[in-house]
Amino acid sequence: MIDQHRTETVTGSAHFAFTDRWGGVSAAPYGELNLGGAVGDDPAAVGANRERAARDLGIDPALVVWMNQVHGRDVAVVDGPWGADAEIPAVDAVVTARRGLPLAVLTADCTPVLLADPVAGVVGAAHAGRPGLVAGVVPAAVEAMIALGAHPSRITAHTGPAVCGRCYEVPEAMRAEVAEAVPGTWSETSWGTPAVDVTGGVHAQLAVLGVTDRHRSPVCTRESGDHFSYRRDRTTGRLAGYVWLDG
Fold it and tell me: Please, what are the domains in the chain?
């Protein structure tokens, strides 16, 4: 199942989509729609799942731009998919000004961030885990979009399923460190221990940048049996978020 959203303007539509774990061919513990190729799953199953997800979205699976995510802040500006034999760069955000080119981000508790300015014809996807959030991957992605002609006031942002602040337990010192770097992240678990709200931090950063059209998924991956969660299961699959503009 895929949760899809669309923003329409006179210059075209921006599409945002987030997958859950159902409708694929992977076996346990990656069942069913695992889209991550570096978690130990059968590569043939991952390939079939990526084909199926793209087909359900009405996009060409060969055009989807994936990332080699490393919990950093580096951004790749792309104008086409990586070649079949190309080494995918170690980045945590991708941005493009090419309409019709889908960008993808993989997560299993981290926050997937999808961004689009349909007027400028610019979209971006970012992987915001706790380290990347603190490093500034979301501001870096927005800055790269602005360099291509986007404006924060026109950007629509969607954050997808992620571990919530009530479930992301961390040591007290880490909570204090993250909250000092990114206000809006301070949280407490439902059982009363220190926690970090990564998605809250993402939205706080976007607000400071001037992005006002923001949408947050209500799904907590750790709590939802319909989504992969690394913190809950350790060995598990990966969800994907996709963003693209009409060609």
Answer: 2-245 (3.60.140.10)
